[in-house]
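request received
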Amino acid sequence: MAENAVSLEGVSLVFGGEDTEHVLAVDTINLEIPQGEFVAIVGPSGCGKTTILNMLSGLIKPTVGSVKRHGKEVDGPSRDIGYMLARSALSPWRTARKNVELGLQIHGVPKSQRREKAEELLTLLHLDGFANSFPSQLSQGMRQRVAIARTLAIDPDLWLMDEPFGALDAQTRLVVQAEFISLWEKSKESTVIFVTHDLEEAVLLADRVLVMTARPGRIKSDNIIDLPRPRVIDELRFDEKFKAAEHKIWKELRDEII
Amino acid sequence: MKSSSEEPSQENQVTTNQVEDRFDLSALPKETTSQKVIRRIDLPVQFTRIAILAFIIWIWQSRKIFAGVNVFGIDILPEIIPLFQGVPTEAWDYILKVWDDKLFWEDFWVTLQEALLGFTYGALSGFIVGMVLGRFRKAQKVFSPFLIFTNAVPKIALAPILILWYGVDIGSKVALATIIVFFIVQIPVMAAVSGVDPDLDTVASSMGANQMQKFRLVVIPSILGPLFGALRLASIYAILSVVFGEFLASKRGLGQRLLYQINNFGMGAAIALMSLLAILALFFNAGIGFMERKFLRWQDDSTRGNVVSL
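response:
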């Protein structure tokens, strides 16, 4: 049997020490994610969702337990992970295209290849007229799309998304979600771990929704979302099967929030 | 254009070309090249400036300012004895006299060299130390007390010691300018590096950037604004430092000439030399402003400093 794309075994993380109190951020997480699965993690704020992404990206190490990708222990940042933050975090001095090229530049990809890749992605995200605009000249929705393009430019095998659409207004969010999901459905082989506080978003996009408890974060339930793909998310919102799935998970999430 | 709609298909429809297709732009008011030049020059502003300058030269040349101005019993401008008076035409005469004087231009070069060297050494070392201490908290913790104390020393007071140590030639002036410029650059650079957006850092780290790449791609571009602000100030202070150093003890230099003229009541010459030093500082400043505009192209004009501003 092939190794899972991501596996966490008995992972706990303690923050603080020295002159602050110890805080248990996540507690004994066990998780297996096969290649190509879209997993959403929902939970109350401060439950350690982002901490899980930081451990997967290799930015921090768990206190105990093991974090593995394709059966190998994660040891520092890896070139085939795309990590997108809640804020677009674009470099204000770089044009949209140059921002998309950032990861490729770090990886030492030649200029012409970088440019080609960035332009291709900007076109896919309907930003082809704005390649030479600076972030300050773009709307929030456009900035977030540039950040998506930057995350995907390095052709990551694992996409880590940390509330990527949290700052967008409701309509813009629908448009960007639809673009994002179609990019993923096209890539199909990529694994996505998508952290959000928005349950509707989680159910609309993911194959599987994990509900986390309030701090210390544990996995409370693991729900398979059995909705067909490709998904037309703006219509799917009104589908009865979708509503039933969302309602079932909401009951569990509610206990953690209230 | 960008706010027309968030719907991506529509966003792309409204490109510049189609605006021209869909609207009759010839109906909009058009500006000829000469009208544009006139608007740029802004004649009323220029006339007012020239009028003010002419007024200053006239009131100075007519020696009216030397008669004294007394407001409510306070001598805002005291009465000046004729020996200490100097007027613009005397300054102009001095310029004409020294223009062909080889020794004068040697002095000019000495001062320029001192200022350029002091500025370069001070700015480079201040930049490097500021970057390293801003980036590595432990190093900042160790060195901060030393830097704070050294900065608190009235650095002008070091000048006599530096003359003893480095001699009366350019070495002592370069050393003084280096020390003064160092702190002007190091402190804001360190603060700016500490304040770099941590998200930009996280993004670069997650993509596997090493420390050198993060310096080059994240830290340096982030701090260019404060860095250029510091360099503008430093350029003025570099000239100030070397002139002061020359006042104390020197063989050559414009500052040395200036002190000589004042000691011999050559007030017109002193005015000419001070004006020349100011022009030198402005050229210095304009050079930095030119680089700033090149590197900070992405910023709005409004947030960028003016060429002449300090």
